[in-house]
Amino acid sequence: MAIHEKSLIEPERLLRHETLVVDGVDVSGHWNTMITPRTITDYDDDFEAVIQRYPGAENVHRCWQCGSCTNSCTMYAQNVQFNPRYWIYAVRTGLKEEIIKDKDIIWQCVSCNKCTSICPKDVRPEGVMKALAHWLEDEGHMPKSPSRVFDEEFTEQIYARGRIEDSLVLLNFFRKTGQPLVPQWLRVFGVRLMQHLPVGLGMRFARNVLIAPRTRSWGRTGEVLRQYVREQKEATHG
Amino acid sequence: MQDTVLIVGAGPAGLSAAAQVASAGYKAVLVEKEDVLGGAPIISGYARLVPSGEWAKDAIGRMVKRVEEDGNVTIHKGTKVTQLNGEAGKFTAKLSNGKSVKAGAVVLATGFTHFDSVNKPEWGFGTFPDVVTTTQVEQMVTAGKIACPSDGRTPERVAILLCVGSRDRQIGREWCSKICCTVSANLAMEIKELSPKTQVFIYYMDIRTFGLYEDRFYWKSQEEFRTKFVKARIAEVTAAPDGRLLLKGEDTLVKRPIVIPFDMVVHAVGMDPNMDNPEISKVFGVGLEQHGFIERGEHYTNTCGTTRPGIYSCGAAYGPETIDDSISQGMAAGARAIADLHGMTRKAS
Are both B125 and B263 inside the same structural domain? Predict the structure, then answer.
C-alpha cells in the first residue's frame, strides 16, 4: 500500500539492511526496508508534574489542544517542526522521547509571547518552552547554557564571600565557557579602530581653524548672491 | 367538569407534572410501571446530580415525598396503562391493575432507556468484568468505593469512553445524548475524590459541556482534578496478558496509534428512546419521531404537545434531556394539561 503520510516517518524509524538474504532470496537494499511502529504503548503520568515544577510551566495541565499557540507562533512560521501544541501534549502524556528528539529546536523560542496572549486557557506556552529548555539542560540532553554558567559563578561568589568581584565573575565566566579574555570580535574591533582612526581629518580641522580657507573658485560669487537677495527683498517689501 | 390529569411515568418530569397539577387544585393520577418512584436517578442509583451536586436520593427523594404527601395525587406503582379511549377532555384509561381512570388530559413523562453497551461488543462490555458503564460507576460513588469488579482492587488508571450509544450511525443512533460529557467530567472528579491516586482519562470526539457546564465541570475536572482528555474514538478494548485492559485506537491530535493499559474502562452510555415506546405509541395513539422518541407537536403555540390533542409530553420522552430541564418541562406539561381542563370548564359554562 502506498504511504500517504510520509511526513510521519522519521528517518530513525526506517530499518534497512545493505545486504540481506531471506530463505535464499536476495532482498538487499530497499527491498528489505521496514518501518518500526510509532504506537504509543503507555503514558508516563509523572512527567507533567516534573515539568510543572519549572517556573512558567505551572499551567501546562490546562491545555485542551486547540492549537492557538502553534498557529500564532513566530517560529512555526519559519519552521513547521516548531510546534508548541505538540510539545505541550507530549508533556501531558509523558512522551519524553518526543521532547528529547526536538531538543535542537525547542530553545529557538523567541519569547514573543503571542502564544501566551492568545491562549484561551491561560496555559502560558512561552513559559512551557522555557521550562522544557531548562529541563533538557538539567537532564544533560543539552550543554549548559552560558547564562547558567554565569549565574552559577555569580552565586558561588556570593556563597563564598557575601559579595562579588565584577572582574572575577567575568574572568571565571570567560574561562568556564572557553572564551578568551579578549574575544576575537573585540580584537578585530580594536585593530580596525586603529586602522581607520581619522588622523587626517583631525589635522584638517586644526589647519582650517587657523587659516579659514575659501572654497575653490569662489571668486565674486559672494557679491552676486548678496546683491540678488537684496533685490528680492526690495521687490517683495518695497 | 373533568378535573383529573393522567400522568404516565414518575421520574423527574412526571413527579414535577403531578406536583404542578396538584398545586393548582386539580387531581393527578400518577401511573408508574416500576415499583418505586423517582425514575432513572433512583432506579439506576445515580450519585450526585449535575449540576446541583445534591445526592439523587435526597433531591429526587424530595420530589417523591412532595407528591406522596399530596392528597390530590393518586399513585399506581408497578402499573401500566393498557388502553386509552376517548378524546381531549374526556379520556378513559384502563390500567394493568384492573382499575380505570377518567381524565381530561394526559401527560406522557415516559423518559428514556439507558443504551445497552453490549450493542458495541468491540468495547468489551459483557466480555471483560472491568468494563463498566457510567451507571455502574454512579452506583460505586453512591456506595463510596471505586473498585474493579473483577477482583475488587482500586484502579490505578480509569478510562471513560464518551459517545457510547450516541452519534453512531453504525448502530442507528444519530443523536447526541447531551449530558454524558458533563456527567463524565463530573464522575472523573468523584472518582478522584474517592481515590485520589487514580488517574482518569476521558476519550472524546468532541466535548459538549454546553452553557455553564463548561467551566463548572469540564475545566474544573481538567484543571483541579487533573482529568486528562484525549481526542480518540477507541477502536477496541482487549485484555492485556497481565489481566489489565488494553485500549486501542488512534490519538487524533498526534496522528499516532495508541495501545494503553487501563484497570477499568467506563462506557459513558447514551440515552435511547424508552424501550416501551412502540407500545406507548400504540396505546396512547401518539406518533414517534424518526429516532423513536415521542414526536413533538408544533412547539411555538402547542408547547409540550404531541401528535394527539389532549396528550402532552415532557423531559427525556422527547429526546435526550437533563434532569433539571425535564423538571421544568414537567411543570410546563402539567400547566398545559390544567389549561385544557380549564378550557373545558369555560366552554361548558
Answer: yes
